[in-house]
C-alpha cells in the first residue's frame, strides 16, 4: 500500500508579508517616521519612540526564530530600518554639533560597510550576512558570533547618539566641548556615556573591518570571473 506523503504547503506572498516579525518591522517604521517628525519639538517623546523601535529590533529576530518565520524579506527590512533610523539621527546630530562632518562620516561608514557586507554575502551564496566564521579577524568573528557582545556594541552606539542628542542645548554646539564637560563631574549619566563610548568605538572598528573584508570579496569575485574561460 503506497503511503501518500503530502508536501508542506508553500506560504503565499501575502502570508510572508504578514509574518509576525515583519509586522513588528512595519510598526518600527511607523514609530520612526513619527519620532523624526517631532524630533525638534518633543525631544523626550522622540527618544522614547526611537529607543522602543531599537528594542523591537531584537524582538522581531526572536519572533522570527520562535514562530519559524525567518525570511529574506524580513532580514532586509530589518537592516534597512536600522540603517535609515541611525542615518537620520546622525543627520540631526550633524546639524546641531560642529564639526558636522564627524557624523556625516559615521553615516557613510555605517551604510557603506553594511551594504557591502550584504552584497558580498549574496556573492558567496550565504544565507546570512552574519555568517563570518571564515573571517581572519577575531574581532569580526566575535562581533557576529556572540549575540551579547554584538548587542552591547549596538546598544552602546544608539545610547551614545541619543545622549548627544539630549545634551545639545543649542545649534552649533562643539562636540568636544560637550564631551569634555561630561568629564568634569562624575554622574550616572557621564558614566553611561563613557560606557557607551567604548562600545561605540568597537562598533566603528568592526564597521571598518566589515567594509574591507566585503570589498576584498567583491574584488576576488571579479578576479575569478575574469579567469574563467
From TrEMBL:
It is found in: Membrane. It is a multi-pass membrane protein. GO terms for molecular function: CDP-diacylglycerol-inositol 3-phosphatidyltransferase activity; metal ion binding. Its EC number is 2.7.8.11. It catalyses: a CDP-1,2-diacyl-sn-glycerol + myo-inositol = a 1,2-diacyl-sn-glycero-3-phospho-(1D-myo-inositol) + CMP + H(+). Pfam families: CDP-OH_P_transf (PF01066). Keywords: Lipid biosynthesis, Lipid metabolism, Magnesium, Manganese, Membrane, Metal-binding, Phospholipid biosynthesis, Phospholipid metabolism, Transferase, Transmembrane, Transmembrane helix. This is CDP-diacylglycerol--inositol 3-phosphatidyltransferase. It comes from Linum tenue.
